[in-house]
């Protein structure tokens, strides 16, 4: 007769065998799994190392190219703006280093910067649009006619353009010195611009901006700067809108211009002014404007070529 003790011992033996099997099996499985994971980790580490090496090599090539462009820049632009005058207009997000480098290149090209005008954050703030419209209409000098468009960028360009640029046909100022001073003072008091002392009207303009606009109303901010630059171009012999990386995106001023065929037919754009090459191209594009030509330059997807005269991509 099989006793209860026998049953208990048998059941315990079965469970013990199962436990031993599980431990042995899981140990073997764990070793295989860990071995596979270790191999995959090694492969991923090798890929990361390869990518880092490629990135470092690419960065080194770009740095070398930028250094080369910096060294030959003065020679590349020499005489391109001989006896020409240029006014420099910057947005609030434009880099001071880009501004200073462009001023130096204009001088290398034989040109003279007659003054600087900075557009503040409020200038492109959609919440300040009505205030900007009102102040533009109030400060309009006699003899200057505003465009029919009602957006703040175009209206502001219709006022500021004639203040900072001379007439294309006769090279004469479009407003008197007192009118210009009064209008710029009013825009400054309104918080929309900051003007350098003794700014004088020029033949050409560079509108220097940063990258893509960010935050609420980014598209409206970019559109205001884009339309402003386009209208300034209509006021003189030529204008170039130059921006940093990202400026050619949908929320960047350069990108907004390039999406408008009417604007791209008159206004030249550069999308990589943060590089030495981009700054050289900005000066060359300004020269093209004098000759009635226009282009979309840089390395963004919506650029037509890297520089004036380069093969079209």
List keywords for this structure.
313 residues, alpha/beta, 7-stranded mixed sheet, 9 helices
What features would you describe in this structure?
Helices cover 53% and strands 10% of the residues. The protein has nine helices and seven strands, in the order αβαβαααββαβααβαβ. Strands 3-2-1-4-5-6-7 form a seven-stranded mixed β-sheet, with helices on both faces. β6 (268-270), α9 (276-290) and β7 (296-297) form a beta-alpha-beta unit. α1 crosses α9.
Low-confidence stretches: 57-64
Shape: globular
Number of strands: 7
Helical residues, percent: 40-55%
Widest beta sheet: strand line-up: 3-2-1-4-5-6-7
N/C terminus separation: 96 Å
Strand fraction: 5-15%
- Give the SSE string: HEHEHHHEEHEHHEHE
* Mean of residue pLDDT values: 86
Secondary structure layout plus pairing:
Elements: H1 4-77, E1 85-90, H2 96-108, E2 112-119, H3 129-139, H4 152-164, H5 177-189, E3 193-195, E4 204-208, H6 218-235, E5 238-242, H7 253-258, H8 261-264, E6 268-270, H9 276-290, E7 296-297
Parallel strand pairs: 1-2, 1-4, 4-5, 5-6, 6-7
Antiparallel strand pairs: 2-3
């Amino acid at each position: 007769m099989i006793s209860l003790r026998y049953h208990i011992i048998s059941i315990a033996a079965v469970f013990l065998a199962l436990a031993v099997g599980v431990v042995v099996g899981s140990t073997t499985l764990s070793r295989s799994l860990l071995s596979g994971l270790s191999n995959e980790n090694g492969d991923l580490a090798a890929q990361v190392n390869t990518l880092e090496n490629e990135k470092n090599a690419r960065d080194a090539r770009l740095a070398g190219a930028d250094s080369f462009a910096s060294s030959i820049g003065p020679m590349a632009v020499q005489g391109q703006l001989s006896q020409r005058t240029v006014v420099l207009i910057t947005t609030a997000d434009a880099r001071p280093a880009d501004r200073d480098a462009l001023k130096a290149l204009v001088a290398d090209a034989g040109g003279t910067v007659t003054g600087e005008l900075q557009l503040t954050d409020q200038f492109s703030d959609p919440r300040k649009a009505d205030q900007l419209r009102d102040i533009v209409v109030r400060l309009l000098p006699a003899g200057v006619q505003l465009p029919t468009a009602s957006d703040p960028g175009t209206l502001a360009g219709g006022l500021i353009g004639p203040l900072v640029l001379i007439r294309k046909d006769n090279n004469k100022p479009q407003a008197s010195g007192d009118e210009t001073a009064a209008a710029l003072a009013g825009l400054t008091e309104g918080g929309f611009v900051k003007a350098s002392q003794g700014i004088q009207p020029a033949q050409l303009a560079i509108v220097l901006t940063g990258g893509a606009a960010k935050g609420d109303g980014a598209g409206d901010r970019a559109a205001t700067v884009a339309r402003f630059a386009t209208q300034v171009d209509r006021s003189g012999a030529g204008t170039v809108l130059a921006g940093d990386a990202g400026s050619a995106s949908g929320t960047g001023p350069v990108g907004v211009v390039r999406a408008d065929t009417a604007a791209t037919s008159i206004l030249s754009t550069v999308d990589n002014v943060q590089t030495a090459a981009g700054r050289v191209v900005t000066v060359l594009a300004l020269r093209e404007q004098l000759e009635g030509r226009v282009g979309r330059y840089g390395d963004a997807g919506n650029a037509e070529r890297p520089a004036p005269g380069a093969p079209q991509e």
